[in-house]
């Protein structure tokens, strides 16, 4: 993973603070992140960080929203021109690749509250390609929502526990059930 580049710009804004913090979380770990470390990376006094984010929690929320947006961009690109099993495979591989490249950002995804301003919009954008893929198998909205939760939990668990293993078998379980039309009814 590339190192974090120290930013010593004349002005620093909230976007820069969040981006630098996200890079630090990827490099040093989500739980190691401090406002002091971000300030040091930016060449600023720690107290100046409060002019951009009111708290470490607000900074963490900003990282989660950034990560959701970045992952959504990657997922959307990965599914272009793909349907069915190929789309599910692309989504799973993109999540795995994102998690490997950005462990701090990935940790932030499960740490953000759905009540966070901006969360609903980013979540909808991230989840839409997955929802549409499940609908393409003939599932209704309720079934697609259940399939999405199970698929997401499976892929997340696989990424956390089977680092370096092929994710294809996990996806094939879903594709087989969906292609056979045996997905449980709502």
Structure description:
The protein has 186 residues and is mostly helical. The protein has a domain at 66-179: Orthogonal Bundle (Tetracycline Repressor, domain 2), CATH 1.10.357.10. The protein is 66% helix and 0% strand. The protein contains eight helices and no strands. It has helices at residues 14-28, 35-42, 56-79, 84-101, 103-109, 119-135, 141-161, 168-179. The radius of gyration is 18 Å and the shape is elongated. The protein starts with 13 loop residues before the first helix and ends in a 7-residue tail after the last helix. The model has no long low-confidence stretch (mean pLDDT 89).
Give the helices and strands, then pairings.
Layout: H1 14-28, H2 35-42, H3 56-79, H4 84-101, H5 103-109, H6 119-135, H7 141-161, H8 168-179
Helix pairs in contact: 1-2, 1-3, 3-4, 3-5, 3-6, 4-5, 4-6, 4-8, 6-7
Name the features:
186 residues, 8 helices, mainly alpha, elongated, Tetracycline Repressor, domain 2
Strand content: under 5%
Q: The CATH topology of the domain at 66-179, please?
A: Tetracycline Repressor, domain 2
Please give the CATH architecture of the domain at 66-179: Orthogonal Bundle
Instruction: Return the structural class.
Output: mainly alpha
The mean pLDDT is 89
By DSSP (H or I, 4+ residues per run), the number of helices equals: 8
Report, as a whole number of angstroms, the end-to-end distance: 42 Å
Largest sheet: none
Poorly predicted ranges: none
CATH class bucket of the domain at 66-179: Mainly Alpha
Q: Helicity, in percent?
A: 55-70%
Rg from Cα: 18 Å
Number of strands: 0
Going by CATH, the homologous superfamily of the domain at 66-179 would be: Tetracycline Repressor, domain 2
Please provide the ordered H/E string of secondary-structure elements.
HHHHHHHH
Tell me, briefly, the overall form. elongated
